[in-house]
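Severity: low
Component: inverse-folding endpoint
Summary: output formatting inconsistent between runs
Steps to reproduce: submit the following structure tokens with default settings.
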């Protein structure tokens, strides 16, 4: 398993991580999977054997069940794994059960530590930006938690460019812990990250943990022209996160066609090619995978240990290209002053 530095930090993470959105399967996460402790333990056994030691969770996943299951599955081997979790989404009915206030963050970290059965979190990430709380309050609280030894590194998730840059500037101004990771959506059918967040991450030393590298299960090879959705597809389930952003059918089929052709050339599966493409992109530290069962996990682990050729990458780039939004399209007219990140 290849390891890469996490942004500008001295900490290294494996290029593949396992997300725990399938653990528990409660509420909006019913469409992701219903992995119990026994199944989770088996998946983590396979991951560790393969050198995959990064496990990512969140307090909002299945109302805390995902963290509880992860904690029980790694019991007795905490020193062999990297634990990442997140907070900011609503986790209760109260006015302070959401966001990034000092009050909520301290309670969230204490709750996550208890559910995970550990006394420290390797990487703690804000799951979303909270405009109702000052960035100074949020970063001071996170810095205090780092100094207390409850968090080792901090990151963010689903931030806009100005959210991230403002946070980095305040960290520098006041000498506070800074974000070294951004967990963001990035796939062959979700390349918006390249327009602003990728150049920002490269310039400021914020590494990417790419979530949903298979485009909300659209790049599994099971969704094809003229065929119904598979019975087990998460796209059949309701919930804000089950299907992700809308994707035009013809664009999706064009990308899948290109993936299929290249998969045949290299002797790999469509998902393996799609994940390998993500891992070749600048600034990507790790791709966070989901797995309903052992077979799916084993298939995803086959995404590494080999390389696409530059020509194959170029074909995938062309098949998945979409016109960027302003001001990116304008800036790309002047390559001399604005060399592209990819």
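Observed output (run 2 of 3):
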């Amino acid at each position: 398993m290849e390891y890469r530095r996490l942004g500008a930090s001295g900490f290294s993470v494996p290029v593949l991580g396992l997300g725990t959105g399938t653990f528990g399967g409660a509420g909006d996460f019913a469409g992701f999977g219903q992995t119990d402790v026994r199944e989770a333990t088996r998946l983590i056994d396979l991951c560790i054997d393969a050198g995959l030691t990064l496990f990512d969770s969140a307090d909002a996943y299945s109302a805390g069940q995902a963290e509880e299951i992860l904690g029980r599955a790694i019991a007795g081997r905490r020193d062999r794994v990297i634990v990442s979790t997140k907070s900011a989404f609503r986790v209760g009915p109260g006015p302070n059960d959401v966001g990034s206030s000092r009050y909520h963050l301290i309670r969230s970290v204490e709750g996550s530590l208890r559910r995970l059965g550990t006394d420290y979190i390797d990487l703690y990430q804000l799951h979303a930006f909270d405009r109702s709380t000052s960035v100074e309050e949020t970063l001071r609280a996170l810095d205090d938690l780092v100094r207390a030894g409850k968090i080792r590194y901090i990151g963010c998730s689903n931030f806009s460019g100005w959210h991230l840059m403002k946070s980095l500037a305040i960290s520098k101004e006041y000498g506070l812990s800074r974000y070294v990771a951004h967990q963001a959506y990035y796939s062959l059918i979700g390349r918006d990250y390249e327009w602003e967040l990728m150049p920002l991450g490269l310039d400021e030393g914020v590494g990417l943990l790419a979530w949903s590298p298979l485009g909300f299960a659209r790049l599994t090879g099971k969704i094809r022209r003229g065929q119904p959705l598979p019975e087990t597809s998460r796209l059949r389930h309701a919930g804000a996160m089950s299907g992700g952003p809308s994707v035009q059918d013809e664009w999706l089929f064009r990308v899948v066609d290109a993936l299929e052709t290249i998969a045949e050339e290299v002797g790999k599966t469509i998902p393996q090619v799609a994940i390998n493409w993500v891992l070749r992109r600048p600034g990507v530290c790790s791709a966070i995978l989901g797995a309903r069962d052992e077979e799916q996990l084993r298939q995803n682990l086959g995404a590494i240990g080999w390389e696409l050729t530059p020509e194959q990458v170029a074909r995938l780039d062309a098949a998945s290209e979409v016109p960027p939004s302003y001001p990116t399209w304008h800036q790309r007219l002047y390559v001399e002053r604005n060399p592209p990140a990819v």
